[in-house]
Amino acid sequence: MSDWVQKFGLQNVKVAAGVSGGADSLALVFRLKDCGIKVTALTVDHRLRPESSDEAAYVADLMKQAGIEHHILVWNGDKPSSGVEEAARQARYDLLTSWCRSHDIDTLAMGHHRRDQAETFLLRLQRGSGLYGLSGMLPVSERQGIRLIRPQLDDSPDFLRDYLRRKGIVWVEDPSNRCEDFERVKIRHFLPELEARIGLTEARLAETAAVLARTRRYLEMQVDRFIKNHVRSWEDGLLFSVAPGQIASLHPELGYRVLSVLLKRAGQAVYPPEAEEILRLVDELHKPVFKGCTLGGCEIFLARRRLWVIPECRRRQVLSKSDWQKCLNFAPQYAKADLPYKVRRAMFNNWMSSDNGKNEKQ
Hints:
This protein has helices spanning 2-7, 23-34, 52-66, 84-102, 114-126, 131-134, 157-167, 183-198, 202-230, 244-248, 252-266, 275-285, 321-330, 341-353, 355-361, and strands spanning 15-18, 39-45, 69-74, 107-109, 140-143, 146-149, 231-234, 239-242, 293-295, 298-303, 306-311.
C-alpha cells in the first residue's frame, strides 16, 4: 500500500474511502491510515436489509475507536423491484461522489480486490463486453468529477482478512454475498470449480484484465491526442465540433472511441451510449449525406462545415435575439463567432442553468 501511496501522490491529499463493514473495505481504510493518510470513512446504508443500519452503526463505532472521521450516507426513497444490484451500486456511487464534491475531497478510495476483478472480468465476458469492459476495474479512474482509486486490486481477499485478524478487527459478513439471485455471487461460487477443473485462477483472470487494460490505455492516449489536436470544445467541454473529414480519416475503431468520449461528455453521462448505437452513427457519418440524429442525450449534426456534438434540447424552445444578447453579456467571446443556431441555443441553456443565469432570472 505504501508504494501505491507514493506512486499516486496521496501523501498530502484528502481521501475518502467507501467502508461497508466488510473485510475488504475495512482493510482499505485501516491500511490507508497506517500509511499516514488523512482518510474519511463513508458508509452507505442502502436500507435494503433490516440489519443494515446496525451494521452502519457498528462501522461508525469502529471508526470512532480508531480516530477516523466517519459519516453514514442513507439511500432514501423507494427501491426498485428488479435490477436491485445495479440500482444499489449506482446509488452508492452517487451518494459517495456527491458527498466528496460537497466537502472538497477529490479522491475516493474503494476496497475492490483481486477476486472482485476476476468476477468482473467473467461478468463482462458473459455480457459480451469488448476491450474496455474486459479491462475490468481500473486502478485509477474518474466518476462524476471525483478521482476513483482502487489500491487493493492486486491483493487477494485472504490477504486482507489476515491483515484484519492481526489487528484484531472483526468485519461484517453481508448475507447478500451468499445469495445466488445475483450473477456476481453465482460467478464467485463457480471460480473454485474453474481452478479445480482447468487451472483458471482468479489471479490469472485478473492478470488478463490487466493486460487488456494496457491496450485500453494506449487507445485512450490516441483518443485524447486526437481530441486535443482536432476537436474544438465550447462551454468548458460541454459542446464539441470537429471537421467531418478528420473523423472519416480515422480507423473505425478509433472513430468509435472518439465519438464515445464526446457523447459521454456532452451528454454528461456516467457511461457512453451502447456500442452498437455508436457504431451505427460511425456508419452514418461515412454516408454521402448525414441528416443528423440524437443519441445519448446529445444532438449530432453538420453545420458550418463542422460536425457538432451538443446536449440535446428536449423541449420546444425558440432562442430570441434578446436572450442571446443576455448570454453574450456574460460570454462576449462568442459575439463574433459564426455559431449555428442550435449551438447558440445550447449555450444559452447552459448559461441559464449556471449561477449567472439563475441570478438573471431572479
